[in-house]
Amino acid sequence: MRNNRYTRRRFLASSASMLAASALTPACATLGRRRSATDRVTLGKTGIKMSRLGIGLGSNGGNVQRNLGQEGFNRLVRDAYERGVRYLDCAQSYRTFEWLAGAIKDLPRDQLFIMSKIGGNPEKPDEVIDRHLKTFQTDYIDCVLLHCAVTPTWPQERARLMEAIDKAQAQGKIRAKGISCHSLPALRVAAASDWVEVNLVRVNPQAVNTDSEVMKWNAPGTTIEPVVEQIKIMHQNGHGVIGMKLIGEGAFTDPEDREKAIRFAMSMSEIDAATIGFKNAAEIDEAIERMNRALA
After folding, report:
1. Are 32 and 66 in contact (CB under 8 A)?
2. Residues 6+ positions from 217 with CB-CB distance below 8 Å
3. Using the 8-state DSSP alphabet, how is residue 201 labeled?
4. Where are the alpha helices (DSSP H) in 24-91?
């Protein structure tokens, strides 16, 4: 990345060029084109473009990808990039956090959508954000989320971090902000929040490892309908919506379950994009194939 720095000034200039070009593109040019996993889609009302499919770099806390070793991890990210997957999903708590810069070295920064997450309510959140920039060797992060909100009082509990994210966004260090939730009470507050721009939501029709009324995965009686209801509210409020846990965090070993889950998520117009954790190129290819089939 040091040999291909993409500054905020260059970002603003290229954004203006892309907007001008899009204004000159006839509306009919996109009609009839088949949708695909690697389409560049717009994330809610943020105006930010990203690939519809993203690669999750934190399966089982990042242990799955970490087990590949740095060289294998780099190859995995490059394999995804070569297939058109430009959305990289990371977090400070993932064991791959320190490896991302090496994996994206020399890739064009303006083609990537990098999302990271910050847990808790750190004492010095400005330093945590700056550590992200330094670790990733970039001038900005496309999206930063509050990580793993559980209680409906998360806006009060994480006020210090939220203020720091607002400050960093005003400075151009962060392009969009949002939250990932791990309970329905937290999700409801996120859906109604004016602060949230992007929601990372656990969704699959089997309701495996998705949100419930309690902070307990696969709690008895969990169904996906309450989550779908909140996703619709998020969309109505102009939030970007990204689906996660589409394949139950790897729980769906039966191909029919994976097909059903991906088809379900892609049938929802309210979901802009989705992230799936991979450990090899074959899994990336399978997800792209299933997603393309669902979008046809």
Report:
1. no
2. 209
3. E
4. 63-66, 69-82
The DSSP letter of residue 154 is: H
For the chain, what is the largest distance between any 2 Cα atoms, rounded to a whole number of angstroms?
A: 53
3-class SS at 165? helix
277 and 250 in contact (C-beta within 8 Å)?
yes
Cα 243 to the chain's mean position, in Å?
8
- Residue-wise pLDDT for 172-206, tens only, equals 999 999 999 999 999 999 999 999 999 999 999 99
**How far is it, in rounded angstroms, from Cα 9 to Cα 7?**
5
Residue of higher predicted confidence among 72 and 19: 72
Cα–Cα dist 230/198, whole Å: 13
Distance of alpha carbon 246 from alpha carbon 204, whole angstroms? 5
pLDDT tens by residue, 97-122: 999 999 999 999 999 999 999 999 99
pTM comes to 0.88
Local confidence band at 29 (pLDDT 50, 70, 90 cut-offs): very low
CA geometry: angle 154, 155, 160, nearest 5 deg: 105
* Amino acid at position 200, single letter: L
